[in-house]
TrEMBL record:
Coiled coil: none annotated. Residues 22-156 form the Mycothiol-dependent maleylpyruvate isomerase metal-binding domain. Pfam families: MDMPI_N (PF11716). This is Mycothiol-dependent maleylpyruvate isomerase metal-binding domain-containing protein. GO terms for molecular function: metal ion binding.
Amino acid sequence: MTIRTSTADAPDTLRPWLAALHTSSARLAHTVSALSEEELQRPSKAGAWSIAQVLSHLGSAAEICTALIQRGIAGDERKPMREELEPVWNRWNALSPLAQREAWHAADARHLQLLDSHEAPQKQPVRVPYFAGLLEMPVYAGYRLSEQSVHAWDIEAALNPQATVPAPETRLLWQRLDLVATRFRDADTLTRLAPAQLALTLTEPATGMMLDLGAELHLYPCEPAEPAGVLSGTAEAVLRLVYGRHQSTDNIQVTGTITLDDLQFLFPGF
């Protein structure tokens, strides 16, 4: 697995992102298909949400995103407004756990089918009026894969403590990890820790990088000249740390003036 970071949201073509979305969705469907209503109400790894509530979140987002893609296909550049989203969320929240699972599966399938229909190179380019702005399809799919892969892990890890984000999804999500780290860091913690540079040593695969803590936060594909410390671990474990999903069983080591606790405060997740 080759790790690549970029300040771009999600470069390349739609195909690898769409394939990963299909794979992750199919895996999650297999994971939850036989769960009882009681099991669906078990806590997930996503804050206070149950497993069913994570499925509801993914399903309502799939419904909303399907409508946004259709809006983009029609040339409508209006961004989503809260007043049009709240009725969707309320309808999903009112469903029973079993109904949330069924509705997630149907909404997810419709979303993927629409993406499939616009994957062919001869299709006219579509810009999706997403929450982050007008996005080309591969960039949009990167945002969606972040939601899909990480929330799938929230469910899978609640059922199996050894669950990980699969390597192909980890590789893709690393391409946009700088974007996630920059946008979803705790400002007060960054102010407290900065200025500092951490050497980031990935053990699987072996890669040297830098976590730069300054007025802003960025990941760079180079090693710092005078690191304040070293953060080492697998690409998958470090990815989850940045997404606010560190597990005590993760083999992550932090040495120097910045601690693992500091990094968990820095990356609270979402």
